[in-house]
Amino acid sequence: MKEMTYHKDSKEKAQGIVEYALILAFVVGVAVALFNSGGLADAIGKAFYEVSETINNAIDDSPEAKQKRMQNTLEEGLKNAIRDSRIIMGAGDWVEIDAQEKFNDKKGVNAYVNGGANLGSHTLDVGGKGKGYPGFVGLWEAAQIPNYKVDVKQDSGWVGVRIVANGDGQYSVYRYKGDEADVGTVSKKGLYGNTTTMKQYEDGVSTWDGK
Fold first, then answer.
1. Would you state the pLDDT for residue 6?
2. CB of 180 closer than 8 Å to CB of 157
3. How far apart are the first and last CA of the chain?
4. How many angstroms from the chain centroid is the CA of residue 115?
5. Which position among 59, 114, 138, 175 has the lowest Cβ density within 10 Å, counted as fewest Cβ atoms?
6. Do the beta carbons of residue 177 and residue 152 sit within 8 Å?
7. DSSP states of 81-104
């Protein structure tokens, strides 16, 4: 009985040490981020994100798990932009943002990202810049995802999230992934602009009521 109590106490102490270490890492992260960025809200967000990623990677650091977490981030950004009317779509319109293996040095981006939308739309409005597709830089600006969440090179290939407006406030949410280092090569194949033919990259689809 005494030995069992010892093991129990040891486990509780070990758990306590881990919890204190995580709190310390968070506090240090906030301090470093504050020193570097000067913004309290951004600093806390970045520190919290980095600690969360450390915990998530300790649980599962496989490429598949990291890709799912990235897709969650992309989906949340697009949904928030639609809820707040930073992205307005008519029935049939779609928008997509992607994280990829290749660094994209396009002016205004400079991160491992890409994106697209249906060209020639007369109802799509991104960021209040008028009707039509403003380029994927505009999509990322509308999504307002902090740089520290997306400036992450994918271990291999690319992952993306596309939201299609079905009308009456209903949407379809597609998750994609592919082996190409640059999702732009998919566009050159003539696939990127067509949701139907993009099914070969599909990694899950769901419906969303816009709320």
1. 44
2. yes
3. 55
4. 12
5. 59
6. no
7. HHHTTSEE--TT-EEEEEEEEEEE
Distance CA 71, CA 109 (A): 19
User: How many Cα atoms within 13 Å fall on the side-chain side of residue 35?
Assistant: 6
* Mean pLDDT comparison of 25-34, 35-44, 148-157, highest-scoring range: 148-157
Are residues 154 and 70 in contact, defined by beta-carbon separation less than 8 angstroms? yes
Of residues 207 and 62, more confidently modeled: 207
Question: Which residue has tokens 């981020």?
Answer: 33
Pair 4, 11: CB distance under 8 Å: no
Q: Can you tell me the distance from the alpha carbon of 106 to that of 155, in angstroms, rounded to the nearest whole number?
A: 21
d(CA 53, CA 152): 12
Residue 184 to residue 187: CA distance in whole angstroms: 5
* Across 130-149, average pLDDT: 83
Block residue for tokens 């301090």: 31
Strands (E), the chain: 87-88, 94-104, 111-117, 125-126, 158-167, 170-178, 202-208
Quick one: pLDDT at residue 83?
Answer: 97
Question: Torsion angle of alpha carbons 11, 12, 16, 18, nearest 10°?
Answer: 20
- Across 48-185, where does the E strand assignment appear? 87-88, 94-104, 111-117, 125-126, 158-167, 170-178
Determine the average pLDDT of the residues in 105-120.
84
For 60, the token pair is 């599962």
